[in-house]
């Protein structure tokens, strides 16, 4: 899986690879382990992403885990604006580009209670996927019902944050979101 991540980004997000498993957890073998970290770097939850376009679900969670925003430790930092994206890989790239970002676990995942910590910012920019499913802008519309400070930025056709970064680089990504 080519994502354009630096070793520092991989370390910062504490990403891992499941080469072996405990009994009963064999379905996670061969996947990237993605810890959801608290502000004090404690692991709250683990998700597992398959590599490439294999069979089965792209993401798996441990049974009983609940959907939650990703990279919420950034909410403890001092920022006037915040960015949101769909998914952990886009969160990694937008963070690597120097922007404060919270990842949402899917286009249908939005919960009204997630708006509360985002209301503290002058503006929340939702960086909406513009893929063939066409659901990125719909997520922004659902979020806007709870966040009067939300502005949606739609990526160019066929792109999300990671694909734009890989195709055109960091400067293009920052220009698109008005940060350069």
Protein model, in words:
There is one protein chain. The chain is of the alpha/beta class and 180 residues long. Helices cover 22% and strands 23% of the residues. The chain has helices at 7-12, 88-96, 136-144, 161-168, 170-176, and strands at 16-17, 31-37, 43-50, 59-61, 81-86, 101-104, 123-128, 150-154. A hairpin with an 8-residue loop joins β3 and β4 (59-61). It comes from Nonomuraea longicatena. This is DNA primase.
- CATH fold title of the largest domain: Dna Topoisomerase Vi A Subunit, Chain: A, domain 2
Number of strands: 8
CATH architecture of the largest domain: 3-Layer(aba) Sandwich
Shape: globular
Determine the mean pLDDT: 91
Uncertain runs:
none
What fraction of the residues are assigned to beta strands by DSSP? 15-25%
CATH class call of the largest domain: Alpha Beta
Euclidean distance between termini CA atoms: 28 Å
Order of helices and strands: HEEEEEHEEHEHH
What structural class is derived from the secondary structure elements? alpha/beta
Over the alpha carbons, how many angstroms does the gyration radius reach? 16 Å
Whole-number total of structural domains: 2
Sheet with most strands: strand arrangement? 1-2-3-4
Share in helix? 10-25%
The profile of the biggest β sheet is: 4 strands, antiparallel
Query: How many helices does DSSP assign?
Result: 5
Protein name: DNA primase
